[in-house]
Amino acid sequence: MRLIDLSQPLFDRAPNCPVHPPVSFRRTADHPADGWRMEEITMATHTGSHLDAPLHKIAGGRSISDLPLETFVGPARIGDVRGLEPAAPITAELLAVKLPGLVAGEIVLLATGWGERRAMTDEWLYRSPFVDPSGARWLVERGVRGVGIDHYSIGGSGPLNAETHTLLLGAGVWVVEELKFPEEVFKLSAPQKFWALPLNWPGCSGAFCRPVLEVG
User: Fold this and answer.
1) Count of CA atoms in the C-beta half-sphere (13 A) of 212
2) What is the C-alpha separation between 110 and 186, in angstroms, rounded?
3) pLDDT band, very low/low/confident/very high, at 14 (cuts 50, 70, 90)
4) Using an 8 Å Cβ cutoff, are 180 and 9 in contact?
5) d(CA 206, CA 50)
6) Could you tell me the domains of the chain?
7) Which of 50, 63, 96, 209 is 20 to 30 A from 72 via CA?
């Protein structure tokens, strides 16, 4: 078995959603003076590679700890939508072309190319491609288990963001955001086994995860 890492690294002042607190990594102890090394980390729960549970958008929805771990492991296929213009919508029509043969219960991972552009720029912060409501409905209607994207928000930063999240999370479809796709994944046959286990944070609306593809 081999694992392909789909996560984004986290570090002090890492790029993140502009309405969230800045990412902070502070060393609080170090060798040789203290005899060990330790860090203090501050950031929102929806930072870096992370999972959204229904509670993130749906009042009374299930939290990340309400979902069985098995929910976050399953067959996944990559929808390669690289080449879209900034702020382009990922529509139902586009998904139908890019995801032929999609089966209920599968996980869809959308590669926009914005994972490679991750930086505190206007383009990355505010002009990413996004799943529009028609695309969200298309995914829900096909019974997907989860949806991922290589940006901090599957709905982008515009006015449709809330509707896209509501459609997906309201249907019980979890979301994984801030992925990064190495070039080798586009040569794999579909589907591949995907893992994204959340940290054990009872009652939270989301959690950090380490998303990987299992191959071999």
Assistant:
1) 11
2) 11
3) very high
4) no
5) 7
6) 2-28+37-215 (3.50.30.50)
7) 96
Per-residue confidence (pLDDT) for residue 56, from 0 to 100:
98
What's the whole-model pTM score?
Answer: 0.97
Cβ 8 vs Cβ 177: under 8 Å: no
Question: What pLDDT is attached to residue 1?
Answer: 87
- Report the C-alpha dihedral over residues 152, 172, 161, 121, rounded to 10 degrees: 0
Round the average pLDDT of the chain to a whole number and report it. Answer: 97
Q: How far is CA 102 from CA 69, 141, 185, in A?
A: 23, 11, 18
Take residue 12 and report the two structure tokens written for it.
């002090």
User: Residues for the chain: how many in total?
Assistant: 216
Half-sphere exposure for 12 (CA within 13 Å, toward CB): 5
- Tokens 């040569």 belong to 187
Q: What was the pLDDT predicted at 216?
A: 78
